[in-house]
Predict the 3D structure of the following.
Amino acid sequence: MLMAAAMGCDGLMSKKVKRVGMVVGLNPKDISDYKILHSDSNPGVRDLLNKYNMHNFSIFLHQIEGKWYEFGYYEYTGDDFEADMAKMDAEPCIRAWLKVCGPMQLPLKGEKSWATMEQVYYNE
Amino acid sequence: MLMAAAMGCDGLMSKKVKRVGMVVGLNPKDISDYKILHSDSNPGVRDLLNKYNMHNFSIFLHQIEGKWYEFGYYEYTGDDFEADMAKMDAEPCIRAWLKVCGPMQLPLKGEKSWATMEQVYYNE
């Protein structure tokens, strides 16, 4: 109780958000199809992202030294990141989704899919 | 009124947020200093980001094909992005900050600083 009081109400009440930044290559021949799959009108796996506590999810696209890369950002609001990711990966709908999207992506050297980046700054 | 009713309360009341993703190279010799400058304990230009409606600002660091890059994400909540950015750029504190951070960065070909990326996906 004393510790909780010392932390203040904010420290006690607010839930810790894990901010994830990630990067993966994208095959230039698949850019158009990738955009269609991720368009607002396609439900895709949006319900599963929310089910496993992944929110405020953006993907950006940019070319670096002649190659295309996707940059993902989202906020994980659950209590067990590893467990939620494992459960999501086992969903048949995610497996079907990755069967389509996976081959479009070109993982960085040593990676199997998205590479997680190191967060070096945050400001509310 | 009819149009507003058709949009629903959310469409009427909620403010449009502009999500910005950006990328720039980082000189490997400056990584350590860059991290110190951006540490939680350094106030830096945090107050100015908020003054000009830039929130939920993260910077991530990752290596791609042997070179280091920073990836920035933030949410702009103001009404005039261009005007706010111009006003912020004119702040003496930002100018001093950029005099230190700018030389650490290696802009992509054709860019002067951060390159703005194309957003291709969003999910709440």
In short: Residues 47 and 54 of chain A are 10 Å apart (CA to CA). Chain A has one domain: 16-117. The interface with chain B takes residues 19, 21, 23, 34-35, 38, 40, 46, 49-50, 55-62, 64-65, 67, 69-71, 73, 108-109, 115, 117-124 of chain A (CB under 8 Å). The radius of gyration of chain A is 17 Å.
